[in-house]
Design a protein that fits this description.
Layout (H helix, E strand, L loop, with lengths): L1 H27 L2 H44 L7 H15 L8 H4 L5
């Protein structure tokens, strides 16, 4: 309980310092200086957002490429793609209109496809 109290005290002190610091800066700093600092912080935020977006996109592309490489290395010669097998099984079940053999895989907790 003491730790929670001291963490709360630390958070409260931090909030007070930030608020009072902003008030002091607003009172004594020239408006042009504050505007320049605000513009720089905003541009830095835009750059960080752009970097994160680019990183996420490049990571997704690399991940998908690696997944395709691993899948290709695991499939035997002439073996169909697992997505094709799943689609064919689903189509057979839909045509039959009744549950298939694959419906018990949810109960068993494992799958071979």
């Amino acid at each position: 309980m003491r730790r929670v109290f001291w963490v709360g005290v630390g958070v409260a002190i931090t909030v007070v310092i930030v608020v009072k610091g902003r008030q002091v800066v607003a009172r004594y700093a020239p408006a042009s200086l504050v505007d320049q600092a605000t513009d720089q912080v905003n541009s830095l935020g835009e750059k960080a957002t752009g970097f994160a977006r680019t990183f996420r996109e490049e990571f997704r592309v690399a991940r998908d490429a690696r997944e395709a490489e691993l899948l290709a290395s695991l499939l035997a010669e002439g073996q169909p793609h697992p997505d094709d097998v799943r689609a064919a099984r689903a189509a057979r079940r839909d045509r039959a209109g009744e549950p298939g053999v694959d419906d018990d895989e949810d109960l068993l907790g494992y799958s071979f496809y």
